[in-house]
Write a structure and sequence with these properties.
Number of helices: 2
Shape: elongated
Helix content: over 70%
Strand content: under 5%
Number of strands: 0
Structural class: mainly alpha
Order of helices and strands: HH
Radius of gyration: 14 Å
Length: 70
């Protein structure tokens, strides 16, 4: 299934917002000395940004052994 340019932009915006929210959560966790949980939030923040880049540049990030165009 191919995405329209508008759908692609909406997904990118949503994933960037998810990443920003998640990094703010990590900051709060760090301030409360919950470092393991903060690492988890940082991991997901990076995941969301990489997902947005995948949509922007039309590649799938679901399987690193088999990148494919979307």
């Amino acid at each position: 299934m191919s995405l329209t340019d508008q759908e692609r932009e909406e997904i990118i915006k949503y994933r960037v917002e998810q990443s920003s929210k998640t990094i703010r959560e990590a900051d709060l966790l760090i301030k409360n000395n919950s470092l393991a949980a903060a690492v988890n939030r940082i991991y997901y923040s990076i995941f969301y940004i990489i997902s947005a880049l995948g949509v922007k540049h039309k590649f799938s990030t679901s399987n690193t052994n088999n990148l494919r165009l979307v």
